[in-house]
Write a structure and sequence with these properties.
Structural class: alpha/beta
Strand order of the largest sheet: 3-2-1-4-5-6-7
Helix content: 55-70%
Shape: globular
Strand content: 5-15%
Number of domains: 3
CATH topology of the largest domain: Rossmann fold
Length: 316
Amino acid sequence: MALRYITAWKIAGAALMVVGIISSYLLSFAGWRIGTESKLLFWILVALFPILAVPGAFLFWRGRQYAAQASAEGILTDANPHLLYLRPFRSDETTRKQVFGPRLTTSEEEQLADVLRPFGELVAIGRPGESLPTPGAARFYVSDEKWKGVVKRRMQATRLVVIRAGSGENVLWELTQAVRTVEPQKLLILVLEMGAEDYESFRTKANPIVGVSLPERRVPWRFTRVFGFRRVSGFISFAADWKPSFLALEGPYFRSGSFKRLAKYALRPVFENFGLEWQAPPISVGQIAGIIPFVILGVMAAGVAAIILLGLLSDG
């Protein structure tokens, strides 16, 4: 599909979503008054959000898929080094999730491809039967009978193998082949939003394959006790003797805020090991904006406290 048509899909989708969102805000702030003065206008606003926003999200998602398809055609035919990304197919973004879900931003896979671009372009096997690829790694397609042979050959030629942790049979087979085929420093295991129990299950199955004990990753007490959930996220890298290290998704507050930024910090040792320049992410405007309300409340509280104190002192 021509670039102008891809752009048109995305612009049309974004425009519909904006109109739908604006109508929902109007309904939120002035719904009662509008309903009192004109019930017809009120119900028009009620209907605009699903009528416009959902098709808009679909068009925008389709535009991104067509853009990913066009980009993959160029990546897969160039002579530049590629990185192999292996993951459970169930981790792929779906149309339902993109259209009806709360998030319209780039997926973790897209952000991972961007972070790793100094190493090369990220490529992956596409989900069997899909008509359009998921944005992220450049998809190539193989039959069920040939995919294992293709993975072995690509491992031999790739600069870096990234495997998303999972307990499925295919993921464990891919990990086995990676241990046999690539140098330890060329293997990364991505652990992303994995339940602590699921991660422990993966460790139990992966340890005999790797021949060493993968790092235990203890979830901070404040998350397990206060918020009531236990998730593990980070990368596992390996030294030349297969000694593993857990690279947590952590970074300074004002330079974090997204998977891409945290992954950039986590992968700094890998960049340095490959002799690639590493640069810290810029300061996040969103993170700064996030604390502004608390700063304002703090200033107001300090002002009130000062007024009360001055009143007490004057009375004394």
